[in-house]
Amino acid sequence: MALIYYREQLVRMQPGQIMWQPYEADLGRLPAFCVAGRDTWTARVPLVCFCIVETHHPDRVLRQFGLAQERPDHVVYDHRLHRIDLRGKVEKNWREEHGPYILTWGMRQQRLCHAPPQIGEMPCDHAYYRWYCPVTRKYVDRNSAKLDIMYMYERRIN
């Protein structure tokens, strides 16, 4: 029952109800070691851990860092990285295998996302919203979609 309630709450949320900068107040209260290397948080780089490589895309969530959100760049996705299977005997030198990704990580200071601070609310006609709406999934499941349609219909009648 709680799941249905929370899904309903998510569907009914309006842009003004979203906390776009959830960490803003907390960052000033964190110990220095927690915010050391803060620039690295906004570096668009691959994160490498042995055989695993995932690309970090902070340009898609700049508002979390208190920066103005623009339309993000296209994501280049390497399908080979998600086909790696370690169930069999794997004898690979991952440093050599993922050398290009490790080099990119090493140049992270040149790959920072730069944006001015976000001041006030983002206008509804902003380029980010025009990009975001067609590429996002608004609904958690089919019932949420039905609920939203019913909710929108109810608002039009009243």
Characterize the structure shown.
- The protein has helices at 2-12, 24-27, 32-35, 38-41, 94-97, 99-106, 127-135, 142-157, and strands at residues 46-49, 52-55.
- With 158 residues, it is mainly alpha-helical.
- The protein has one domain (2-85, 111-157).
- Strands 1-2 form a two-stranded antiparallel ribbon.
- Helix 1 packs across helix 8.
- The protein is extended, with a radius of gyration of 20 Å.
- The mean pLDDT is 83.
- It holds the Pfam family PMD.
Could you write a compact summary of the structure shown?
It contains eight helices and two strands. By secondary structure, it is mostly helical.
Strand content: 5-15%
Mean pLDDT: 83
Number of strands: 2
Radius of gyration: 20 Å
How would you classify the helix and strand content by structural class? mainly alpha
Q: Biggest sheet, in brief?
A: 2 strands, antiparallel
Helix content: 25-40%
For the record, the count of structural domains works out to 1
- What is the end-to-end distance? 27 Å
Q: Based on CA inertia axes, which overall geometry fits?
A: extended
